[in-house]
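Progress against Task 2.4 (sequence-to-structure conversion) is shown through the following example record, which the project officer requested during the mid-term review.
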Amino acid sequence: MPSVICIGSALIDELYFCNEQVIVGTSNPANLSRNIGGVLTNVAFHLAYLDIDVEYITVLGNDAEGKWVEEALQKAGIKIGNIALVNDTTGKYVSFLNADGSLHAAACVDVCEKYLTPAFLKEKVATLSTADIIITDTNISIDSIQWLINFATTHNKILIIEPVSVVKSRKLAALNIENVFMITPNEDELFSICLNAKGEEAKMIESLLSRGVKNIWLRKGALGSTKYNQENAIDLGVEKIDIIDSTGAGDAALAGWMAGYINNYNELTCLQLGHTLAFEVLQIKGSVKHDITLTSLLESRNKYYKDAK
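Structure tokens generated for the chain above:
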């Protein structure tokens, strides 16, 4: 089975679930949930639970929180031999969620960009060369993302880039993204990658494909998602569900899609598995469904997509 290396930020997630819709400029009563997070951390956890060979390259501080993350990753079966341990603080993500589970606002403090430099990545060439698939987020620097793109091209590796946020996705606007296998923006991130170009979605997708990206998986929230490439576009809708926590749904979608792709399912099934894992995560507190397996993911797919074959 293909092996995966994830490269990105490991964070402590502090999620404040407000009792009512958030009111700006005043104190909002809330309940606190504290978990291990970060986009690629969430992806790596799910991949490990889905029985995929995964290694994680990230940065952790020499503090109690860094130790907590390291132990949790190792317990999940994720390889951690190339994690950078630094005399700094472990990153943190703080979010405020409305009573309906939607995100009102968030802030992130992260040292990943400071340490996961091209020089650091060059030291990991031997490890990176063993991977079939590399997934990175845009928490690392522009230079580091470009280095990974060049490495993947030279070494014939599948590279997937998760844009993370509107601000951080803007890094992709300045890069040579030719031969990137897939990027996974939502609609706001797509707009940002295209430097806020005023145009139709189709024109923005066309502009990215013309830059050499092989696949674009556009997430559209309640409208589902569409996966584009030069040959076709596949749309997939979503079921209406009660959302408890929106944190990590996109990360789960990528991991579910990866499980389908690695196990040689067709494009539609891969999308369905991505949506399914996102649905499952949306209905729990926290960004990782720790009891997921490939068998249970396939069974859950039939719950949301009753005509699935």
